[in-house]
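Not sure how to ask, but would you mind making up any protein sequence you like and the tokens describing how it folds?
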Amino acid sequence: MSKSPTPKGTPVQRSPSDGVPEGLQSPQHSTPVSGPQHKKRISSLLQSPSFREELDVLIQEQMKKGGSSSNLWALRQLADFMASHGSPATLPVSPSNMMMVTSINDLHGWEPGSLVKGERLMRCKLASTHRLFDLYGWAQISQTLLTLRVSKEQEHFLVLPEGLAYSEVTGSSLVKVNLLGEVVEKGSTNLQVGTDKFSLHSAIYSARPDVRCLLHLHTPATAAVSAMKSGLLPLSHEALLVGDVAYYDYNGVMGEEEDRMELQKSLGPTCKVLVLRNHGIVALGESVEEAFYTIFHIQAACQIQVTALCSSGGEHNLIMLDRAIHKPNPTGTVSWAGSTFGPLHKSRTGEHEFEALMRTLDNLLDKPIRFRWCQVCVAATR
């Protein structure tokens, strides 16, 4: 059956299988699929805020479902590429921040049998402390550890495994070990714990049952002060805030019982600051908050001391503070909780400051709740 000729200028109707929408003119007048206009449309779509929002939601869903690391890595690479080649980014674009897409509180759906009461929150706090060390430029790859005692009854401790950067630490990646450094719960990785690194912490925890958290800092300033015969000088208010300081000639290992006894003798029953000669400084705390509060002021005090000694020409040109006159703020604070006439609430040392730092971590990101950095106290207890 013959077809009637199509009037000139009339649009040609094509089936959907041809891949060309209805209403287009004959093929010789259509735009090629691979033409510049098509590429421009694709580029515009990829750089649109709505597409980035969808990509972000996809990343979060994969994290919640426990998607494979290769899938998450590919999505993060795509997000990072888009952020660095398009308009103002929704996701962080700094190379050191690539792993910050991962939430600290990644414990949802992770149910190892060895978790004790409150361990989820403690894991999130210690992981947050690692992120803070990275933020302040204190992260080390040498013989330093940040550890937390999670159970006094069983003497179990959380520690960072070897091979993870401080910027990568999450609640589930921390390894739980016993007093000998033997793994009790390996966490979400297959990485090992350096028993030699942990031996110092093990000795301190054995000597001081009151201590819950140890933070070892080995920055240039703290290492410099630990190498000075004078030790930490009372040059600043920060130096007075840390209280009494103990000194120990540390040789890098704590394998012998004699070394442990000497450490216990040097540390005493109440001291919260331990200077390891030529090996930095360790802060001891009854909580993560107290330990970080102490180490923060130690770093500031050491930086002030190094700067003052360099610029003054020597210790004899410096003014020392008299501890009897220049007294630091009392440990802990008592403040009103709730309304103005609400009940009194006694907070532990560093508690309010640590909460503020958690909010600071959140505020570094465009969408803090999305990554749940400072939500650890709420989310970890759900």
